UniProtKB/TrEMBL annotation:
Ranges in coiled-coil conformation: none
GO biological process: one example: amino acid transport
Domain Solute-binding protein family 3/N-terminal: 36-265
PANTHER family: AMINO ACID ABC TRANSPORTER PERMEASE, AMINO-ACID ABC TRANSPORTER-BINDING PROTEIN YHDW-RELATED
Family: Belongs to the bacterial solute-binding protein 3 family.
Upper taxonomic lineage: Bacteria, Pseudomonadati, Pseudomonadota, Alphaproteobacteria, Rhodobacterales
CDD domains tied to this protein: PBP2_BztA
Source organism (scientific name): Paracoccus halophilus
InterPro entries from the UniProt entry: Bact_solute-bind_prot3, Solute-binding_3/MltF_N
Keyword field: Signal, Transport
Signal peptide residue numbers: 1-22
Protein name: Amino acid ABC transporter substrate-binding protein
């Protein structure tokens, strides 16, 4: 009995030391030693990160976790998904509980500086909006004076909501919620007149309703919400790996590299940028502690950025989101991968 307690204590110390090592900036070695990527995701947002009945996770943010795991560990399935709320997500990252926060989180000044997070890029340009029931006959957010509004605590939406109503000389009653699941429940129970969060989140929430056609997202976008993965401040090499994995997915779409043609292009592409991206020349992977085929594995794990978008949240899915600002820079959007050279 004492031996079991001793071994349990030793295991606890090892795990604690392991988490401390990751928190102090040696995440690449920690992930390789562990053999699994600990990826922080939403507690459940259809299209972005949600488990099915068998516990299998899928979605836009999940696809990035898989791409990163494939780049680093050679297998996109070597991921442990850690569901995090708006209140727990940053503590989980700072403490080393997760290696990266892929949960839809907004890049802000305070989070970047005071919370000591490093956002590795923007993977979805969004904005805050409002959803109401169609039978309320509300057509504008400016008609919500005096309304009760469901809002998730620990998020940027709280200040945005207060600012918007103050700027328009309106009043509201906040109905505080801890997660999107609770928000959905309270909204459907008519505990609030409107639900506010990022428009992509509203679209995902509505898609899960039994009667999505009876709920409308109002036209006003009241904030800028650049969403993206984050790592710990000072964990520079790990940040580079995560950043360039995201850029690899974006660049692949720009240059027509897909999960279907990537093997052929890795051998035959005449585009120097594609050759460098896919490891045929220059061996960029060695600069970040990976092999030459890291980007190939990342792209093959779920496709390029456009493929991932279309499969998880695009116009042909129940979420139904158009590319909009998230189109490539060559197509009028804001997506722009830094050069692979």
């Amino acid at each position: 009995m004492k031996k079991s307690v001793l071994f349990g204590s030793v295991a606890a110390v090892v795990l604690a030391a392991s988490g401390a090592m990751a928190a102090e900036g040696d995440t690449l070695n920690e992930v390789k030693t562990r053999g699994v990527l600990n990826c922080g995701v939403n507690t459940g947002l259809v299209g972005f990160a949600a488990p099915d009945a068998n516990g299998n996770w899928s979605g836009f943010d999940v696809a990035f976790c898989k791409a990163l795991a494939a780049a680093v560990l050679g297998d996109g399935e070597k991921v442990k998904y850690v569901p995090l709320t708006g209140q727990t997500r940053f503590t989980a990252l700072s403490s080393g509980e997760v290696d990266i926060l892929a949960r839809n989180s907004t890049w802000t000044f305070q989070r970047d500086t005071d919370l000591k997070l490093d956002f590795i890029g923007v993977n979805y340009y969004d904005g805050q909006g409002f959803m109401v029931r169609k039978d309320q006959r509300v057509t504008s957010a400016k008609e919500l004076n005096g309304a009760s509004i469901c809002i998730q605590t620990g998020t940027t939406t709280e200040l945005n909501l207060a600012d918007y109503f103050k700027a328009n000389n309106m009043e509201y009653r906040p109905v505080n919620i801890d997660s999107n699941a609770e928000g959905e429940q309270q909204y459907l129970a008519r505990a609030c007149d409107a639900y506010t969060t990022d428009v992509s989140g509203l679209a995902a929430t509505r898609a899960a309703f039994a009667d999505p056609e009876n709920h409308i997202i109002l036209p006003e976008i009241v904030s800028k919400e650049p969403l993206g993965p984050a790592v710990r401040h000072g964990d520079n090499n790990w940040g580079d790996i995560a950043r360039w994995t995201l850029y690899a997915l974006v660049a692949a779409e720009e240059y027509g590299v897909t999960s279907a043609n990537i093997d052929e292009l890795a051998k035959s592409s005449g585009n120097p940028e594609v050759q460098r991206l896919l490891g045929a020349t220059d061996e960029l992977g060695t600069m970040i502690g990976l092999d030459a085929a890291w980007a190939v594995r990342a792209i093959k794990a779920g496709g390029n950025y456009g493929e991932i978008f279309a499969k998880t949240i695009g116009e042909e899915t129940p979420i139904g989101l158009a590319r909009g600002l998230n189109a490539q820079w060559t197509q009028g959007g804001l997506l722009y991968a830094m050069p692979f050279r």
